[in-house]
Amino acid sequence: MVVQVLWPGANITDTLQQVTDRVEKKLQETPGLDYIRSYTVAGTSTVFITLKGSVLSRDVPDVWYQVRKKIGDIRQFLPQGIVGPFFNDEFGDTYGVIYAFTADGFTQRELRDYVEGARTRLLAVNDVSKIDIFGAQDEKIFIEFSSHRIAGLHLDRQALIQAIQAQNAVTPAGVVQTSDEEIRVDVTGGFRSEADLRNVDFVANGQIFRLSDIATIKRTYSDPPQPMFRFDGQPAIGIGISMRAGGDVLALGQNIEQAMSEIRADLPIGIEPHLAADQPKVVKAAVDDFMEALWEAIGIVLAVSFISLGIRAGAVVACSIPLVLAAVFVGMEFAGIDLQRVSLGALIIALGLLVDDAMITVEMMVTQLEAGAEKAKAATFAYTSTAFPMLTGTLVTVAGFVPIGFAKSAAGEYTFSLFAVVALALLLSWIVAVLFAPLIGVTILPDRMKLATETEPGRILRSFRRACTAAMRAKWLTIGLTLAALAASIVGLRFVPQQFFPASDRPELLVDLKLSEASSIYATRKVVAEFEELLNGDPDIDHWTTYVGQGAVRFYLPLDVQLANDFFAQSVIVTKSLAAPERLRSRLEPVLIEQFPGVVSRLSALELGPPVGWPLQYRVSGPEPVLVRDIAYKLSALIASDPRTEKISFDWIEPQRTLRMRVDQDQARLLGVSSQVLAQSLSAVVSGINITQLRDGIYLIDVVARADEQERISPDALRTLQIPIPNGGTVPLLQLATVEYAQDWPLIWRRDRNPTLTVQSDLVAGVLPATVVDSLQAKVLALNAELPVGYKIVPGGSVEESAKSTSSVAAVVPAALLIMLVVLMIQLQSFSRLFLVLSVAPFGLIGVVAALLVAGKPLGFVAILGVLALVGMIVRNSVILVDQIDTEIAHGRAPWDAVIEATLHRFRPILLTAAAAILGMIPIAPTVFWGPMAYSIMGGLAVATMLTLVFLPALYVAWFRIKEPSPQQSEQPDLSDQPQQTSLHRVL
């Protein structure tokens, strides 16, 4: 939420101490507060309230209500003359569709009239929440006086202004009540055009003056201009369309397109609307791509099923997929989970897991049919023997996703639907497997199948038997090699790049242009015009929009929205292909550095996940801004020493020139002039003062009195400014005050009530922020140790957000492990077997590190979520094998032989389910967002599956001291640790 308070005329020090500090102190009482940031310029205080990720979304409106109440409580303690406070709790609203209206042969006012008409019609479109207009320049009527001429005529400018205000005032004149009716009395005199102002007459010193004789009256637009909007280098007015909560963005796009076709038909030639941002098109393309990937994943899983199980058994699994997906979509509708990037990716991830239970059921039925059972009994046995064990395995897998679902952070909220969809899919797949799969099997499977005793093991199974037996015989070597591989992977983890969220794979390129903080909006507009010349005719550009005096409006949810500042401009360039932004960046960057040396420029792609802005950031904070600046300079030199950094900048650091009027109070009192009168006189000359408003249709047009241009733009002219005194005369300013130049801060950022300066830097291509922060850590710590008490340097940006998000996930990991342990203890009923089952889980790291290094993918937040989810998958497979070993022993087989036979018996289902999960992720492996997670799960599950079938048997015989029996007899090992009862049947 944003709270803004205006105090016209105050300098930055007074604004900071009397407004910003009071508001910050009160807002520190906000429940669920994470931190407060404030942005103070002379006369304006802007405070940002950021809540902790643990605050539930449904509680946020109540918190914002508390913020309003708290600021209301201190309203009386704020300085006199403030305007506001103003509240904005819609800071995160996104404009999914943006149109830019350009005009050829029409004035700005005429263009705005048509834009307002289009806005009115679009507000009636279904699913539209609000429509905002930006880039429009408000009309103004300027009354420009010459202070010297007014002084020469002995006119009182303040009296003239009061006369204009009195004539234009809206004052009730009463209502005449008769016996039959009431008649309202109306008094004329209000201004309807600038002509009315020109004809205003004054009487002064016995003479009549017409306003047009003593002042220049002109109707124009805001001067200086308000933030501007441009499309393809042309001035434009934009409208941003926001969708209502729960709306369908694709339906919104169709409805707006239809409405705009009707609006376009009514527009005159010369006024043209251009589609500047089209989120419905982007979403449709993304959904189409993900649906294609979803069908590919379905095809892969089906192929695995048919090849491994055969046509009829595979058909049973194939029938379960649409049943589960249909139920998942219904569940998503009830849970309010939309189809978006995360939920669609979760469906693909779940595909490889949701067929596991169906495969177990089918395999159990096939086993019974091979043993000669009837189909009905085989189906019944499959249900009774697998329902609870499969539920246990499903819950173990779901537990692996629990940290994703309950992480209390912005990133956790962003990826919550991953947990929700996967958990929903797995639980529904269990229901389908135990209720519907047996029924489908009865219909599809044959009455009799070839007896298992009539078949011989294949070549693969025979080779695996030899490998498994060898691993068990050399059990200590097997365990040692596995531990060595784990140690190597831990070392190799240091070489895996660390990342928070990757850049987006959209075709937009953002270009930030930041001038000196004392620059006017005219200077910014000039730089923008020169920059846009570079873009004209570029073959890679489809179109671009430029925001002058502010950052781009939020057309994309994770956009790092910039504040409105005269010295800042931002272009959003939409290229013709996904590869074009990088080519365009490589061409523009050297040109910007060469042609705009005084401009801090930055070219960046859109971000995925919570927005962080510059990749490398350090915050320097402390009580005194001057010392904070000095520390920031030292830190910037330290950062610059790393060759991987480039374009180091600061969010504020430069002082600004000010003209300071030192008033001789004694002389001023002798002349009857106060500092207030002096300030008002200066304001009327330099900036102008609003004296009244002209009512023109739906618009209110400010009437501004100011000095003419020659006096207004010259600092030297202020020295001879004539100041009115009570006797009707005037005196020059120099008789009352001394004019001198001084320096002050143009703006100050604070965080948690301390001035905070952010040192930020771009990085060379291919370098990730965490890598540079790690390498600079020792130097930064050394600099931190030298700082005075109260001053500190902390990393910010993606490194800080990643740490917060990772810690929010880590905080839930114990709960996930507890759930997993409880489920496993119910299933295994033995601490020894619990240890064995969990022992394989850490070794998945071997495959994760190897896969990420080979694929060149970073270990980001999403990949970490994949690693956590991987634990449940690995444990599930381990339970299968340990439970089967216990079953074989319970049926009288020698322990050594039981381990071998159980491993061979579970070889196919473990390999099969792992293959389905691994191969099902191939379609999302090339994607930017899901790629690191896909490779983590694929590599980790592949290695863990092999270790489950090789390492776990070796560990089992070592743990229980089982020896290989001689050919003549089987030695009985000490099985005092092992349960004597038959454990539950197979678990997947």
Describe the structure.
This protein is α+β, with helices and mostly antiparallel strands. The radius of gyration is 37 Å and the shape is elongated. α13 runs antiparallel to α29 (861-890). The longest helix has 31 residues, at 279-309. Strands 1, 2, 3, 4, 20, 21, 28, 29 and 30 form a nine-stranded antiparallel beta sheet that branches. Strands 5, 6, 13, 14, 15, 16, 17, 18 and 19 form a nine-stranded antiparallel beta sheet that branches. It has a four-stranded mixed beta sheet with strand order 12-7-24-23.
List the helices and strands and how they pair.
Blueprint: E1 2-6, H1 12-27, E2 33-41, E3 44-51, H2 60-73, E4 83-88, E5 95-103, H3 108-122, E6 128-134, E7 139-145, H4 147-152, H5 157-168, E8 175-177, E9 182-184, H6 194-198, E10 201-204, E11 207-210, H7 211-214, E12 215-221, E13 228-231, E14 234-243, H8 249-266, E15 271-278, H9 279-309, H10 311-335, H11 341-354, H12 356-370, H13 375-405, H14 410-414, H15 416-444, H16 459-473, H17 475-492, E16 508-514, H18 521-535, E17 541-548, E18 568-575, H19 580-595, E19 600-604, E20 616-621, H20 625-640, E21 645-650, E22 656-663, H21 665-671, H22 675-686, E23 689-696, E24 699-707, H23 709-712, E25 722-724, E26 730-732, E27 737-744, E28 747-751, E29 754-763, H24 769-786, E30 792-796, H25 797-810, H26 813-828, H27 831-839, H28 844-855, H29 861-890, H30 895-919, H31 931-959
Helix pairs in contact: 8-9, 9-10, 9-11, 9-30, 10-12, 10-15, 11-15, 11-30, 12-13, 12-15, 12-30, 13-15, 13-26, 13-29, 16-17, 16-30, 16-31, 17-28, 17-31, 26-29, 27-29, 27-31, 28-31, 29-30, 29-31, 30-31
